[in-house]
Write a structure and sequence with these properties.
With 282 residues, the protein is mainly alpha-helical. Helix content is 59%, strand content 7%. The chain has helices at 2-27, 29-36, 38-63, 76-94, 167-182, 186-211, 220-225, 232-235, 241-247, 250-265, 269-280; strands at residues 99-100, 104-109, 122-123, 126-127, 135-140, 144-145.
Length: 282
């Protein structure tokens, strides 16, 4: 029990340190660089981030994964919410990959009109009739469309940024929240709650700095047209659902939903039910 409690402490302190050092160093970035220089600033940033992430990784992999104190078995409502969060996270991640496409395309070749004026053989005023040829033509192509037009300006409010200003952070947070809602181990709850807390604190602080022009720029217009929390701009009518669907990568999203369904199917529901019955019988 002492070892598993150590794992929980290592994970919790690691996440607290990671959030704290990012918050302090980024907030005081200009002052620290002015006094100590940019190289020392980046060295301190990298060193502290390495120490905190190492604490998280060691605590989870060797002292917390699938072991230690447990909570009550998650119920059906919790597991259902986990599936929703898992699907949202995978949908977000899928949009960062190149646009997927069916590797075979089919086209119809139009019939050739041999009686047209261009090069039609004729005999006097009578033209020579030839049979018209048409059919299906199959062509192989790359399963990824690398020529798909992405946003030239990363700051433009389009695509996933119509949903949230921080699509990468929230995609990871949704996936982490799915694990948190599904597991009964306290160590895993602490582990996968960390990314959600990190997004809430550091994501908001990033917007705060960008509004002040520190490390980036968030114009009042873009701030008004977008939202920090996912789907808020869509629910308030600031952004349109049709634009999100039109700009999204449909096949990527389909693959993401299929993966989510397969992961749900592989969830040992029967094992969970038996464990829940045994747990209640104690």
């Amino acid at each position: 029990m002492a070892a598993t409690a150590t794992g929980i402490r290592l994970i919790g302190l690691g996440w607290a340190g990671f959030i704290g050092e990012n918050l302090i160093l980024s907030h005081n970035r200009s002052d620290i660089i002015r006094v100590y220089g940019e190289d020392r600033y980046h060295f301190a940033y990298s060193a502290l981030s390495t120490v905190t992430t190492a604490s998280i990784a060691y605590g989870y992999l060797f002292r917390g994964r699938g072991q230690g104190p447990t909570r009550a078995m998650p119920g059906m409502a919790s597991r259902s919410c986990a599936v929703v969060c898992q699907t949202l996270g995978l949908l977000g991640v899928s949009q960062f990959f190149p646009k997927a496409q069916i590797p075979i395309t089919v086209s119809t070749s139009p019939p050739k009109d041999m009686n047209s004026s261009s090069g039609t053989p004729s005999r006097g005023s009578e033209s020579i009739e030839t049979p018209e040829k048409s059919g299906w033509e199959f062509k192989a192509r790359c399963p990824f469309d690398f020529q798909h037009k992405e946003n030239a300006d990363d700051e433009e409010i389009s695509g996933l940024k119509r949903i949230t200003r921080h699509p990468a952070l929230w995609s990871i947070s949704f996936l982490s929240l799915a694990v948190t809602l599904r597991t009964r181990f306290i160590s895993e709850v602490v582990m996968f709650t960390g990314p959600v807390v990190t997004t809430l604190i550091l994501g908001n602080h990033m917007d705060y700095r960008f509004r002040r022009g520190e490390g980036g720029y968030l114009s009042p217009e873009d701030d008004e047209k977008s939202s920090f929390f996912p789907f808020y701009a869509l629910l308030t009518g600031t952004q349109k659902w049709t634009d999100v669907i039109h700009e999204g990568k449909g096949l990527n999203a389909t693959v993401a939903m299929c993966i989510s369904a397969l992961l749900y199917a592989r969830t040992p529901s029967a094992h969970i039910s038996r464990a829940s019955i045994a747990f209640r019988g104690r």
